[in-house]
Amino acid sequence: MTPAARTQSAIDLLDLIISAAREGGAAADTLIARWFAGRRFAGSKDRRAIRGLVYDAIRLCGEVPASGRAALLALVARQPEMAATFDGSAYGPAPIVDGEPVAEVGALPRWLAEAFSASGLDAAEQAALLERAPLDLRINRLKATRDAIAKILPEAEPLPFLSEGLRLPGDTPVEKLSEWAEGKIEVQDAGSQLVTLAGAAARGMEVVDLCAGGGGKTLALAAAMDNEGAILACDIDRPRLSRLMPRAERAGVRIATTRLLDPGREVDQLGDWREKADLVFVDAPCSGTGTWRRNPEARWRLTPERLGRLESMQRRVLEVGAGLVRPGGALVYVVCSLLDAEGRDQVSAFLAANPGWESVSPGLPVGAPRGAGIRLTPLRHSTDGFFVARMVRSW
Description:
This protein has helices at about 5-25, 30-35, 45-60, 70-80, 110-120, 125-130, 145-150, 180, 190-195, 215-225, 240, 245-250, 265-270, 305-320, 345-355, 380; strands at about 135-140, 155-160, 165-170, 185, 205-210, 230-235, 255-260, 275-285, 325-335, 355-360, 370, 375, 385-395. It has about 400 residues and is α/β, with parallel strands linked by helices. The chain has 3 domains: about 5-85 and about 100-105; about 135-185, 2-Layer Sandwich (Alpha-Beta Plaits), CATH 3.30.70; about 195-395, Rossmann fold, CATH 3.40.50. The strands form 2 sheets. Strands 5, 6, 7, 8, 9, 10, 11, 12 and 13 form a 9-stranded mixed β-sheet that branches. The longest helix is centred in the N-terminal third of the chain and has 21 residues, at about 5-25. It is globular.
């Protein structure tokens, strides 16, 4: 493909992504994969170049752009050499015209920038949310050691504060490695690994992973428990939960079972676990603001109304989780969000409404105190953004 054709392809893809963001359609990665699947003529270099243009433009535009062309023109202002690709050729974009719309440059939509500032996150913290994310591995201690995997992957760097963590170049094809197929390694961001430590999971525990999703933290908890005890992994999302047991089998995890829950009926469906669990781990549904390095177009999808709905869901899952904890047991609350409304404020409200609970240190080796919990940010800790708090039931 010519440079002009690559630019036009990026514009076409951005139009699809912008439309999906406004209408609640598929994520950018999904749309890009579908687009390339129908264009086999695009070689690997073309795909990398087009994908790079698309994500550079997405990261550059805080507000939702008017069009893909407006987004690319914002990129041209930063990379003037790109202007030559707007040449009006058969497969290229029309020449640039003075005064045509150019997307607004910025890290975040204005309302979100204000919410981040109110949550103690300055412009540097906000900008760091849009940098390219690294690729982190968790070594499955049930099957391997970090030293053994590091010998196989000499380009990997040990993750500070994590005895089972390695960091690889972002384009490493991990799922093609035999070590991945054998369950020796899992892709898991350093922040996700760190907040799992707040569970202090140990052999013989009875654990509920209340919002387990695909099971990344379930597998980490099982490894920390040395496959002794029991973990009930729950979720309301059938497709995501269905992926957990095949992952567990590959990882050699024997102590996990799954339970699909119906929204609004969680308390009844978990009646057999009421006041039984040593640990309830709540990785609550959230805005995902801490993961925008990986899916930056998600900031175009978040609205004040959607954030309000998520906050209601978070309060609900905290209530459900609390009812499963035995006296002396722990409730760990995690969100991959940096907004106080989803982290600090939720925990403060829970503790104020439940005098039988007290907050204790999550015991993480790194992180910044935030209210009753700890916050991790891309800028300060080189992880995805997380908030985590640990609460213990005293009676």
